[in-house]
Amino acid sequence: MIEIKNLKLHQYTINTTIKENQNVGIYSRQDQLLKELLLIVAGINPSKNCFYYQKPLFDDETYFKERIYMDCEKEYINTLKANRIEEVLALKYHKVFHQEQFKKYVKDLRIRCEGTYQDEYKFTKVGNQLVNLCFGLCIFSLRLFYHPFSFLQDRKQYEYLKNEMRINRGNILALESLQKYQGVLDTLIILSNQQVYEFHDLNTRLLVVKGLIDSEFVIDDLELKNILLFKSIHQDAFIIRDELTKEKRKKLHQMKAEILSIPVLKLEEYL
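-> structure tokens emitted (271 positions)
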């Protein structure tokens, strides 16, 4: 179990508990912020506010044995020889690797088609991401993945991997987007414009308010900042939690605002 207690990161204060075998997604429109947070939770960047079973996890040898961190856009692996990977992991990192499962992934996802071989493999961006994810899912530990599906456009590929994440639970995912992760997350943490929101029910609805002349004025006038997630970049609209009072909803209708109810995982369509 990981606990984050009063972690100050830029304008945010983060408090959350990540239980064993949960699949947790973290989303922000700021990629660098996401990476900073994941490196802290991985115990790589210093913090006194993150704990693994009540012990500080920064630079902790025990925690490092129990988790793996991977930036899925980076190149780590240049071979598909499962026995070689297993040997290196056992000798260097003392981790257990399920090589038969890895072989199955390579075959099912046709990873050999996503690279060229001359002494070692040189993978495409898609191939590299597939190898990283398959490698991580074959290790028996807590997994922290940064941008897992950023290069994957083939729905069959990411649906296959989502199913494996449901089977091999215990994944903390720094998300590059939201919609690809339908059905795999137990918890979604959103670092919004103003604050941190945590959703345990991924069927939660949000409200999009659009069609206003001056959204900024309305947000201040109706005191909506405490339920505000995002202001749209491309249109004069904003996204809030579905917690409008009848009085505030009435005022928005009087201003000729259009109010749409959307699933939380579709909020990107309105940014």
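The chain has two domains: 2-191, 203-270.
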